[in-house]
Amino acid sequence: MKKKVILPEGVEDLLIDDCHFRREIEGKLMRYLELAGYMEVQTPTLEYYDLFSHDYLSQYGNRMFKLVDTNGSLLVLRPDCTIPIARMVATKMKDFTYPIKLSYLNNVFRMDQEQSGRKREYRQAGVEIFGVDSYKADVEAIVTAIEALLSLGLMEFQIEIGQVKIIKGILKTLETTEDHQVAILQAIENKNLIRLKELLDAFDLQADTQKLIEMLPTLMGNPYDVFTKLNEMVLTRDVEEGLNELKKVLNLVKEYGYEEYIQLDLGMVAHMDYYTGIVFKGFYKGLGTVILSGGRYDGLMEDFGLSCSATGFAFVVNKLIKAIKIQGEYTLSKNKHILIVAADSKYNKASAIAKKDRSEGNIVEIALAEDLDNYIKHRRVDEVMVISNCSEAGGVGYGGS
Amino acid sequence: MEVVKIALTKGRLLKDQIKLLQAIGYDCNHISPQDRRLVQEIPDKGLQVVFLKAQDVPTYVEHGIVDMGIVGKDVLLEVKKKLYEVADLRFGRCHLAVAGRKGGIDGKRHLKVATKYPNIAKEFFAAKGQSVEIIKQEGSVELAPLLGLSDVILDIVETGSTLRANGLVVLEEVMEISARLVLNKVSYKTKLKLRQIIDEIDLQLKGGC
What we know:
The complex is a heterodimer. Chain A is of the alpha+beta class. Chain A is 38% helix and 21% strand. In chain A, the strands form three sheets. Chain A has a nine-stranded mixed sheet, sandwiched between helices. A four-stranded mixed sheet of chain A has the order 14-13-15-16, with helices on one face. In chain A, strand 15 and strand 16 (394-397) form a beta hairpin. In chain A, helix 6 (178-189) runs antiparallel to helix 7. Chain B is of the alpha/beta class. Chain B has two domains: 4-92 and 178-208, Periplasmic binding protein-like II (D-Maltodextrin-Binding Protein, domain 2, 3-Layer(aba) Sandwich), CATH 3.40.190.10; 94-175, Periplasmic binding protein-like II (D-Maltodextrin-Binding Protein, domain 2), CATH 3.40.190.10. Chain B has helices spanning 14-23, 56-62, 73-79, 118-128, 143-147, 161-165, 185-190, 192-208, and strands at residues 4-9, 39-42, 47-52, 68-72, 84-88, 94-100, 110-115, 131-136, 152-157, 169-177, 179-183. Chain B: InterPro entries: ATP_PRibTrfase_cat (IPR013820), ATP_PRibTrfase_CS (IPR018198), ATP_PRibTrfase_HisG (IPR001348), ATP_PRibTrfase_HisG_short (IPR024893). Chain B: Pfam families: HisG (PF01634).
């Protein structure tokens, strides 16, 4: 009987070329992170459901793939990389010397709405920095993102920075129900100015506060312009503090010489209960989706009984690869591909040649194919080496297509 | 020249959408949803237009296949995509309402609801604590209560004449609806031209209506 041959929704096979391309990009990316001092770690694909069931993670709640363990406890396929790493640091690495700079490359699983064209299994590569309270760690994360993208040859990208403390600082002054607050945040996030005004009109707000909140979604783009707009505003101390931190971050990024990649969006509302400070996202001009995102999450470690500041970000690997492909001009490193055709009695010699050539970085195969010409053409073999019973090894160049 | 792609909704909103584009200086005389070209260009302006069915507009915008779109609020509420909703274009106004036969649901604890908007219906009745069974329809929703498929319908009501012709009345307003301008979240940040178009539309809205 013929087996069922379709795939579940939201997952994919990666065929040869795509796999090769992904490995090369990931290799470069992880190598850069290694050179920048990040140590790679790996957490398991399966975790307990409870690890992700905090209030502020409710966004994942019904979107996690769940399994039942033999003893009845609920397991999930990792829906996120940061929380397991935070768990690992808090339980197994807390005595390490801080700061701890970690990197990872993992698959994550999220049950998205069906038929929405979104992946349900995808790869994230990222970094987490534990134990640095200062804005310098925020800058380190942002600069790592920029330099990683540059190391991949990506050019027209943008990093957009927001500051959760500003929104939180303002909302703190509003006496409102949680539902109302969520609605306000949603209106800010969707830049829905009409709805925002409606929601705010329901309060008897001070004119200054109302104006500032209404302005938030529009405080984006060039940092200088944003700060100019804010100069005219009356700000509370919390907001002022958040803003100063943001300025420090921008100044240091500027010192690095990466000012051109930076934009602001003070209306960036990113999982507000989770992030606590500077947040950022990365875009590529020709691609309508986010290629990386991250930020500071100082509160998370407390859930594991450890008071420790943390910040980090993750690349969405398939989006990153898409951006690189859209930009074009990326040439994969190619090794010379050698095919050895040997008589049985010459396998000993063939094996020796293969070992030597492989050690020099070439792809070397001992021929298995019946139809050699066809194989050589389709696998783009550069050189064929025939070792017959009567001859010494001799190369026949096919001048690879 | 930077090219911006916009998705327009086919159907009852189309005339007003074209009018809006004309008003802000985009010559729409050579584009039409009947045209066989899937992507049509407004000459010399770097604006490309695609005509889509309403439900597809948010999807195209979310994925960044088009940078911006015009679509009814009803559709946005139903499909809930991640995008920026930046302007109420004030045309295509109508209501979402629950309708049925007069007195047809008196005393009923559990309602059968026929609708093209199952998600909106689910949320609306859940918020009221009303127990319902939702029956998704593709068209001619008014038929459902007449033939006994459902107790009520949840649908858009423009003038109410279709309801009246079928002997139905509005039992409850759900909300007002109008056409909205929606943007892809990334395009808004990366394409300057997009912001120009929004500003032009804003200006038009402030001055025009």
